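hey m, so remember when u said the tokens were messed up on ur end? i reran from scratch. heres the input so u can diff it against urs
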Amino acid sequence: MGQQRAEFAAFYESARDDCLRAAVAAIGNRQVAEDAVAEAFARAWASWSTVARHPSPRAWVVRTALNTHISWWRRRRREVPEPATPDSGRDDTGDHLPDPRVMAALRSLPTRQREVFVLRVFLDLDSDTTARTLGIAAGTVTAHLARATRALRAHLTPVLEQEQKL
């Protein structure tokens, strides 16, 4: 048990910031993402012997956080609307989050494209691991990533061009 605890502690320390950044980018709300990631890490600890053997434990945590968010949203959507205000690019703990313009562009993507983009870009997973994590084909990952990249480029290019003119 002591070895397992040490392995999990090391994993948590090395993965928590990446997992939180990916969840914030996918969910679009820092507070909700923090809750979902905390729940995902708690579940990872409870099943550490299985999660440790996963091809990408970080992806497992992010996927679990996204599933937790979906479950939370389904239960609460009729009770309390989720705030639509974008998070700042830097929070008070010093963690660097994606630029608010990138966050806004990510929120404009369909859910699956956003999930694929976050796993491939923020966690640097390959197509096969992303496909296994999301339960889709590797070719589907490639298609969603291409669509997401095209949409993000179309959304962000005019913004950057406008800034360059100023």
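this time it looks ok to me. The radius of gyration is 17 Å. if urs says something different then somethings off w ur setup not the seq
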